[in-house]
């Protein structure tokens, strides 16, 4: 399996941060939803730390599911 470059990882993290902010989810809320430490999420987002691939996948899964729920709800139930 090919290793992800630091540049690609940084781009992925940038997209995760954009998605989190677009959804209006705070780091604290993301930590609660993923079971990850809020400090770890902050460090990941700021590029101060790296995590195990499972942690990144948990964040991505959580944000993606939130987007799906938001987009699939009838317009009168959104909000």
Automatic annotation (TrEMBL):
Gene3D superfamilies in alphabetical order: lambda repressor-like DNA-binding domains (1.10.260.40)
CDD domains for the chain: HTH_XRE
Any single Pfam family the record assigns to this protein: HTH_3
GO molecular function, one term: DNA binding
InterPro entries: Cro/C1-type_HTH, Lambda_DNA-bd_dom_sf
Domain (HTH cro/C1-type) ranges: 16-68
UniProt name for this protein: HTH cro/C1-type domain-containing protein
Organism: Alkalicoccobacillus plakortidis
